[in-house]
Amino acid sequence: MTQLSDDVLELEMMAVVKDKEDIGFSYVKKTISTVLEPGEVLIKVITASFCGTDYHIYEYNKWARNRLKLPYTVGHEFSGEIIKIAKDVTRVKVGDIVSAETHIVCDECEFCLRGEGHVCQNTKVIGVDIDGCFARYVKIPAKNCFVNEKHHDQLQLSVQEPLGNAVHTIAHFPIENRDVVVLGCGPIGIMAVDVAKAYKAKKVIAIEVNEFRRNLAKELGADYVINPLTEDVRAKVMEYTNGMGADVIGDFSGNKTAIETAFKYLKPGGGFAILGIPDDDICIDVTNDIVFKGVRIYGVTGRRIYDTWYQVKELIDNNMLHLNKIITHTFPLSQINEAAEIMGSKNCGKIVLFPGDEINE
Fold first, then answer.
1. pLDDT tens-digit profile of 175-188?
2. What's the CA gap between 122 and 115, in Å, rounded?
3. Could you confirm whether 31 is annotated as catalytic?
4. How far apart are CA 27 and CA 16, in angstroms?
5. 268-293 pLDDT tens trace
6. Catalytic residue selected from 31, 34, 47, 56
7. Which residues of 262-282 are buried (b: 16+ CB within 10 A; e: fewer)?
8. What is the reported pTM?
9. Which of 34, 47, 53, 241 is catalytic?
10. 56 assigned to active site
């Protein structure tokens, strides 16, 4: 167990910073204060993982330009060891191995008070609105810490946050013995394939344009894999579901055409959970594809706090997933730009990063 002395007021570290209004990250020396506000903890990061959001920050797209206040430290998915707690913190202790719920919610609005903090309108996101975890140390509220079993693989513990997105999306509607479509097999979509198999879906149909990710979906047990660039997706899904359509669809693509087509092969009475964020307006035949079919649509943001986390814990504790296959690349944090380029190529599953080259080891 690591414990920080009270007379240490700041630490030097290397960190990944977004400091330029252009493509790329900077890997720089920074200091972090060890003085904690009430309710805060200081964590020594052990592993961190690369998210699609981090890639949008890397390329500095329209969303990033409108949202971010530069410069700041990037990253929000991680596992680490608590090395200092504020005097009022009782929820966690020094030495705990934790991951983080990355949405810092207000606990006061009507949504938080009715147990729906995942849609809190005052949310701040670690690594987006405040300094993140692509560094050796990070400070976050203790209420955002999820305590892990110490015997679990640290490599896998860092991906619980995006895994929570997959679980929240694909398991919102009952999927056991149902025909399930996973639309888009990026890192979270590929996790959803694994989750759907773990939850005993009757058939899992994966739809993905990238060959690397189609092959990964097959390896994880997808019953059918469709390439929308060369195959008629609607016809194939109807064929694989005996002409009835999919009971449950989870969208991880945010692709306009893919989502519009999905409403055509969604089974009457079926459920459509949408995590992907389209750049374009979606055109839907509300009368025939929603009302007369009696379907249910669910918008997914983040994870239900902490319900989804306990679902994730159950899956990991019972070895129900294959995260060793989903994590396809590892890099030292110093090679962050190389990791970003691989993420941009889409020839990967999940990428995990390791802090290193540190001054205060």
1. 999 999 999 999 99
2. 14
3. no
4. 5
5. 999 999 999 998 999 999 999 999 99
6. 56
7. bbebbbeebbbbbbbebeeee
8. 0.94
9. 53
10. yes
